[in-house]
Amino acid sequence: MHYISTRGGIQPIAFKDAVMMGLATDGGLLLPEAYPQVSRQQLEEWRSLSYQELAFHIISGFVDDIPPADLKDLINRSYATFSHPEITPVVKHDGVYILELFHGVTLAFKDVALQFLGNLFEYILAERNEQLNIIGATSGDTGSAAIHGVRGKKGINIFILHPHGKTSPVQALQMTTVTDANVHNIAVSGTFDDCQDIVKALFNDLEFKKKYSLGAVNSINWARVLAQVVYYFYAWLRVTDEDERKVSFSVPTGNFGDIFAGYVAKKMGLPIDKLLLATNENNILTRFVNDGDYSLSDVVSTASPSMDIQLASNFERYLFYLYNQDSARVRGAFTQLKEQGRITFSSEEMARVQADFASASVDQAQTLETIGSFNRETGYILDPHTAVGVRAALDLLPADIARVCLATAHPAKFGEAVEKATSAATPIPPGIAALHGKPTRCDLMDADLEQVKDFFIKHIV
To answer: Which residues does the UniProt record annotate as the domain Tryptophan synthase beta chain-like PALP (predicted)?
Structure first.
């Protein structure tokens, strides 16, 4: 299995090289040359597998340069940190299935991928006797999950940029209370998109990237997406039996990474009826799916801050397929976005988009109302991001199919919003309660590339 760039400027590379490259050296995103195909017979054979066993079967189809025994060990160690034996259990409430992705160390879905990626990095670096300096941007959950995935690991430094004051208090504490020598938190006076622009600029400076051995943990790293593909298969196997029941997934998303993993699962042959893309007021992706309007606007702060994004990194991966793998068109689209602030699409392309996805935008009032009403009716507490997906599913997906809603974070990470919606305090897990009062370390900076670059160079150890 080899990997290519959406922008067509690199020769195909192996999986381990793709992991270490992160963002392709031509500025594009890496994708496999082909997708392993899964038959219905294989799906039936996988029904009795544990999450770890299923992950091995799926991931090994994309990896041929790590011995199977080593890959199994990496997977098993990655999910040994989870608090639930099923890793990503599925529960049913009020006619929808909730796929709980928050049983990892930071109580967010990012742990599913970043525990695996952290172990991958350590494995490859030890094999090559190299060092890696990770730099990433976060709207909240990626940063803490990445930090906890690599804290204390040999040969790795990590620098995480987050928008100052625009994450939840718990998200900020999960990052800034990690004071290991190899961990550095940077609070940027700006938005997540400002943070992401700085990170992309550093990766696009190829001389700087090579000199300082930059590595990526954002979902621009293919291994992140790959690890997330697994739980679509796992959930499908839990909500179906041997009949042909339809299954749709509702995915709260801002950066297009989580729903792109579902798109990959579908390309592999998983019989997904519909992928429902749910956004908050930062609804560039909903405008794209419903109206063909992919135009930039200002970021709005909401109760679901991990989705407060306008420029979706993983959208480029989908464009590559929408444009029939025409790298020149992908490059042209991002030139248009830079010059005009928008990308335009033909009616034929939009017909294909709407065959792949449905979409809905759920505002803050609807989000809080959904948290409250769902809790009153079921006793179950949704976090604000999950509530966006649940509301979209209840509004748009038919009740006679299996509606799987991705629960991307534990509600305690967004206690203020949940308490406002339910008029009751959210039970606090011990791991979150222990954060309060711990020493913190964080550096506040302007959204300035050179300032961040200077800090980075001075703090490499």
So the answer is: 91-324
